[in-house]
């Protein structure tokens, strides 16, 4: 695939860290795990690209209770299976204190979503479990939270365990309606100034439309973010959640090519 699309396979490194100095980490995969077949097709694409991390939601915190809520433990099982089969590390969301142990048994990175940034009981539980089981935590910014509140939320996690926390800027609520949320790109240099924490950008949930994801991702590299968490799906038109913002395989390849150019301009490599 990489040959015919003229994209060179990135040399896999087996460094466990989600973030590595001099590198820009691309975490991609579907919004939700929908079936074994769907996840396997994504895993194959991600592995062929030479990427290390795959995302996929098993517990989906949907705005409407009538929307697809995820495959839950069945989804976690597929995630683990594909992680082993394709040698990928996995990122998935944890939504409830009751499921933290279970999610940590299946995944490498525990994601706390925007709706739960201020769920202090969940933050503490994730800190405890991630510390004990040596898991990385991605903490998304609450869509109505200040950077100060976000950094204090980190401390609810780190005060419970020695955990590697990666921040994720995913857009905040403003009066602007032309994108799903408003990406606060300046959060990246602000975080770099205020803390030593790594920060990635989620362009997908920020803009909410697939055609805007690539330009915003280029900006993420240029502004000095440590990576992106970007949604991709084998057939976005059939996705059970967030279909309008997920990249298809062709768009994902295009994204990779464009990111490599920007990364090389600032002396970084994509992984
Ligand atoms: C997600 O990444 O699957 C997700 C639900 O994102 P957010 O918490 O940013 O809405
Ligand atoms: Mn989504």
How are the secondary structure elements laid out?
Blueprint: E1 23-29, H1 36-48, E2 53-55, H2 73-86, E3 89-93, H3 100-106, E4 109-112, H4 120-133, E5 136-140, H5 147-158, E6 165-169, H6 187-194, E7 199-201, H7 203-207, H8 210-223, E8 227-231, H9 249-265, E9 269-270
Parallel strand pairs: 1-2, 1-8, 1-9, 2-3, 3-4, 4-5, 5-6, 6-7, 7-8
Helix pairs in contact: 1-2, 3-4, 4-5, 8-9
Residues 31, 57, 61, 93, 113-114, 140, 170, 202, 205 line the site of phosphoenolpyruvate.
Structure description:
38% of the residues lie in helices and 14% in strands. The chain is an alpha/beta fold and 271 residues long. It has a single domain, classed as Aldolase class I (TIM Barrel). Strands 1-2-3-4-5-6-7-8 form an eight-stranded parallel barrel, surrounded by seven helices. Helix 1 links the parallel strand 1 (23-29) and strand 2. Helix 3 runs parallel beside helix 4. The longest helix is centred in the last third of the chain and has 17 residues, at 249-265. The model is unreliable at 1-6 (pLDDT under 50).
Salient structural properties:
alpha/beta; disordered N terminus; eight-stranded parallel beta barrel; TIM Barrel; binds manganese (II) ion; binds phosphoenolpyruvate; 271 residues; 9 helices; 14% strand
Task: Offer a concise description of the structure.
With 271 residues, the protein is α/β, with parallel strands linked by helices.
CATH superfamily: Aldolase class I
Which CATH top level class fits?
Answer: Alpha Beta
Tell me what portion of residues adopts beta-strand conformation: 5-15%
- How many helical stretches? 9
The major β-sheet equals: 8 strands, parallel, barrel
Largest sheet, order of strands side by side? 1-2-3-4-5-6-7-8
User: How many β-strand runs?
Assistant: 9
Structurally, how many domains make up the residues? 1
CATH architecture: Alpha-Beta Barrel
CATH topology: TIM Barrel
**Rg measurement, Å:** 17 Å
Please tell me the overall pLDDT. Answer: 95
Please give the share of residues in helix. 25-40%
Low-pLDDT runs of 5+ residues are 1-6
